[in-house]
Design a protein that fits this description.
- It is a single chain.
- This protein has 473 residues and is mainly alpha-helical.
- The protein is built from 25 helices and no strands.
- About 2% of the residues have low confidence.
- It is found in: Cell membrane.
Length: 473
């Protein structure tokens, strides 16, 4: 039984007027085009449009320092290919003095991203003819980015990663469509997301996204060990999936499932340790860079701390670290209290979304691609097109603003800080808080929750077996 969005979502119902209106009680379906296959097709198209959007930068191999901002096609991948040693296939956690002399800047990401980047660099070398690395070792690394041969590799490196990301997007969409078998169309809000198209190629943030989607899928299937493994692998790729254990804790306390919480947590810890072991054993100092880099980082792009720092005489890094963690700790306590006092046990995605949103709201850096962290949780937590459009509109506005800010196009004519960029940051945070407020209301007043309310649209005794296997919207 599939809940038809044309009968439950006002935006979808209005759009459907141009193709015959909402689904009727006698509507038929298509044998091949099931909801999940339609969602996957939408996801493929969205990702393809995102690749096209990066075309201008791809053509000049990201060498035009102006175009990457005017065309909003910046990506970290090309610069890290030469800047972190992948042009020489250097292991990210190699502690050899000669390697570190050539590449003093170590990968500042968790191990999952470093492994993926190194593996895709290896594939890049294979498909570009296995270049002579001995010759490269004799040259200064400062020459690499402008070298035509290496530029060809950079483009191949981006393509290899993009193809891998495309698989991750499709897998994420498939997993999200399967979280609730009655609601496969909720995943269409992920698949058709403009934020997904714009930010998918900025960095490697799609890696934790698929693991979070997998954790939500596994939890819905009552597989606590698999959920824990995916959370642990996600935390080894980006820190934020670790916070999903808070959602598991609340649910397990409400439903008296202590054993499931223990299994999930143990599996998460084991998976995280095993994933980090190769990096730590080969280069413990290099492995620690991620943790020291983040603790020493000042207020950065997208964060409310940047607005405060620029609007005042600056804020000390230690002060930001202390207050951001205090605010986040208080936020988590609030989510915990909300969850345990709610009339009905909150859903995994609702709690997960609230916790991750709180982390981003008070974090000292909020890069444009971090919207991907929230996207799979948001579409499951509040599956309404209107609310997703409102929130993602603020994300798209910020995406444009950050590149124009970095390009100097938002700078006031008389000098000083860019108030327009501050406004974009505040609007982005306001859009996120709007979605947070709706999810909090849904948890506290469950009759507002679309997932619980829409279940009443199709009577449980109505025979919809045929329709559920076809395109029924």
């Amino acid at each position: 039984m599939t809940v038809p969005p044309t009968r439950t979502d006002g935006v979808v119902a209005a759009v459907s007027a141009g193709v015959g209106g909402p689904l009727g009680t006698r509507a038929g379906g298509h044998r091949w085009w099931t909801p999940v296959r339609v969602v996957l097709a939408i996801a493929a198209l969205t990702f393809a449009l995102g690749m096209v959007q990066k075309g201008n930068c791809y053509e000049d191999t990201w060498t035009d320092g102006t175009a990457r901002y005017t065309h909003m096609c910046y990506s970290d991948l090309p610069y890290l290919y030469t800047g972190r040693g992948f042009a020489e296939l250097a292991w990210p956690y190699d502690d050899d003095a000669e390697v570190r002399g050539r590449y003093p800047e170590v990968m500042e990401y968790p191990v999952g991203i470093s492994y993926w980047a190194w593996a895709t660099a290896d594939v890049t070398h294979l498909i570009t003819g296995s270049p002579d690395l001995g010759e490269r070792y004799q040259r200064p690394t400062s020459e690499f980015f402008g070298d035509p041969t290496i530029q060809r590799e950079i483009r191949a490196f981006v393509i290899v990663n993009a193809l891998g990301f495309a698989v991750l997007v499709l897998l994420s969409a498939w997993l999200l469509a399967g979280v609730d078998r009655k609601r496969p169309w909720d995943a269409a809000m992920f698949a058709a997301s403009p934020a997904l198209a714009l930010t998918a190629l900025v960095n490697w943030d799609l890696l934790p996204v698929v693991l979070v989607a997998g954790a939500a899928w596994a939890w819905a299937r009552e597989r606590p060990v698999l959920t824990g493994v995916l959370i642990g692998l996600g935390a080894a790729t980006k820190l934020y999936p670790l916070f999903l254990l808070g959602a598991v804790l609340v649910i397990c306390l409400c439903d008296k499932r202590v054993r499931d919480f223990v299994l999930t947590t143990a599996a998460a810890v084991a998976a995280w340790v095993l994933a980090n072991a190769p990096a730590y054993l080969t280069g413990p100092d290099e492995w620690k860079v991620f943790w020291t880099f983040n603790s020493e980082r000042a207020a950065d792009l997208g964060s409310i701390w940047l607005v405060i720092s620029q609007a005042t005489d600056g804020v000390d890094v230690s002060t930001i670290n202390t207050w951001s963690w205090l605010f986040f700790g208080a936020w988590c306590v609030g989510v915990f209290v909300l969850g345990v006092l709610a009339p009905e046990t909150p859903r995994f995605a609702q709690l997960g979304f609230l916790i991750v949103a709180g982390f981003l709201l008070v974090n000292k850096v909020y890069s444009p691609q971090y919207v991907l962290w929230l996207l799979p949780l948001a579409v499951l937590a509040r599956p309404r097109w209107r609310d997703q459009i409102v929130w993602q509109a603020t994300e798209v506005l910020y995406f444009a603003s950050v590149w124009w800010y970095l390009g100097g196009y938002l700078a006031p004519g008389g000098g000083g800080d860019s108030g327009f960029y501050w406004m974009a940051i505040i609007l982005r945070l306001a859009g996120e808080l709007y979605l947070v407020a709706l999810v909090v209301r849904d948890v506290w007043l469950p009759h507002h929750d679309p997932v619980r309310r829409d279940a009443e649209v199709v009577p449980p005794d109505q025979d919809t077996t045929t329709r559920s296997n076809a395109v029924a919207v």
